[in-house]
Amino acid sequence: MAATSSSAFAPTVPTAAGIGLREPHREAFVAAGCPVPWVEIHPENYLVPGGPRLTGILRVRRDLPVSCHGVGLSLGSAGGLDPDHLMRLRALYDRLEPGLISEHLSWSVTDATYLNDLLPLPYTENSLDRVRRNIDHAQDVFGRRILVENPAACIAFAESVIPEAEFLAELVARTGCGLLLDVNNLYVSSVNLGFDRTAWLAAIPADAVGELHLAGHARMTVGGEELLIDDHGSAVGDAVMALYADVLDRVGPRPVLIEWDNDLPPLDLLLAEAGRAQRLLDARMRQFEMPAKNPEVHCAG
Length: 301
Known about the structure:
Pfam families: MbnB_TglH_ChrH. By secondary structure, the chain is of the alpha/beta class. It is 39% helix and 18% strand. It has a single domain (17-287), classed as Divalent-metal-dependent TIM barrel enzymes (TIM Barrel), CATH 3.20.20. It is built from 9 helices and 12 strands. The strands form 3 sheets. It has an 8-stranded parallel barrel with strand order 1-2-3-4-7-8-9-12. It has a two-stranded antiparallel sheet with strand order 5-6. Strand 3, helix 3 (83-96) and strand 4 form a beta-alpha-beta unit. The chain is globular, with a radius of gyration of 18 Å. It starts with 16 loop residues before the first strand and ends in a 14-residue tail after the last helix.
């Protein structure tokens, strides 16, 4: 198991609803007084030595905890992780001091070529050992634990012999990583592949879940069959919100994020979605008798 340690300077991401902060919203978000207690960014958008984009996100980070959700590390790559990409991420994390770092259970790099997709893995012993090595490597370089997100799947590999939830649980046991439970991905995969969401949730280690994601999905008809597509292009559907409530009952209150990347809505609508998630979270926190953890936020505009 890789040695991991959190930075003493990284602020804790509160058990509250945040938003995925995208550049078109950043200035309006700051002007509105940073109206949610934390945000998440894609670190690959800020791997630059300087300039207005990096300055802008450092300005947000001055007032809010930030979670970094990577999209390019490619934990499933057979050839290991790109050392240059790792070091650029490490340099950004040293500046931002994010409260959480997460990556996807997927691959997207082969022979130094970056693909514009998060591609699925067969769940086999070979895959498990490969991802385990890559997580150990990443955690060693970053000097802290990462969270690994469950993917959204449309198809299953015939070679897969390990159920996804058990695959994730084994990664936690072998590396000390945590989990980012994407509720929309779980719903999409369970509908497309026809597995039992309750059994999936029972098989993952609840204590390892460090963050939740909520998002919208689309419906497509392929070959006469309907598929759900995790497109992050709409409001969170009622079925996903119901599953989110079930997850809170089973896992307990966690920081929860609204992801919306395509057909980006006005900031007010994104904040309203965070409000829906916060109200459910508040209700569960009262049940669990947890103190409110929303910090008072000041942002000088």
